[in-house]
Amino acid sequence: MRHRLPPLAAIRVFEAAARHLSFTRAGEELGMTQAAVSYQIKLLEERFGAPLFIRRPRQVTLTESGHRLAPAVSEAFETLATAFDDARGAVEGVLSISSIPTFAAQWLAQRIGSFQIAHPHLAVRLYADPTTADLSRQEIDVGIRSGHGNWPGIVAHKLIDVRFTPMISPDLLKDGDGFSKPEDLLKFRILSPGDPWWKVWFAAAGVSSVSLEGLQETKFGAQSLEAAAALAGNGIAILTPAFYQTDITLGRLIQPFDLVCEDGRGYWLVYAESRRNVPKIRAFREWLLNEIADLT
């Protein structure tokens, strides 16, 4: 059936001209010249096989064929406009967030309820995804990324610096266990010894001789999983303290040394530059930047 449709541009011009009974006013509405409107109508009439307008000086009127066609065309455009508005309303009523898992689990999921209370018209879809969502192609409104904040075509607001230090459950310690020097950490199982954060931390602690090669390799898909293993007493994890303040306060995790390191990266709120003024994105940005203050 598609091949039977005349050019949609010409139909659009016909609908406006039939409504105004004026090529000039139709052109003003559509941002076209009168000559361009006349040309589109001529193309449509050739496709239709009969005149649709009677041209008179300073006035046009519909022919009998034009009178039959105009209501159906107007109704079709109204149906299309309604469908578009409904679809757009559905999209505008949902905020899709793609976040790295640790930030999603340890911070955002615990606070997103206050955003929903403040914006009850928005439904939130939170996806904890270790991969980087393509904000220009996927149906994702905003993301939380880890990096240096220099992504092309992306607006990035720094939330917090990436900081890390070893942490352990007190349940893993026995009487007499203690940490007088960084090398004492090696008395315990190192979770994810291949994590580059370990090398950075030991180097900053002045221990260049420590080698983690050859240790039993355990890999976790997210920092939050390493934290869960540490909380269960399975070893020492290197974690971002800001995400585990409750566990530290309640004594479920111990930070053996005061040394906390950085690697130059940060956690960022990101969204496509072309969508910076979308109301739901603006609302989330304002909420998140205000809420994140308690982590900085």
Automatic annotation (TrEMBL):
It comes from the Bacteria. Keywords: DNA-binding, Transcription, Transcription regulation. One of its GO terms (molecular function) is DNA-binding transcription factor activity. The keyword Manganese does not apply. Residues 6-63 form the HTH lysR-type domain. GO terms for biological process: DNA-templated transcription. Belongs to the LysR transcriptional regulatory family. This is Transcriptional regulator GcvA. It comes from Stappia albiluteola.
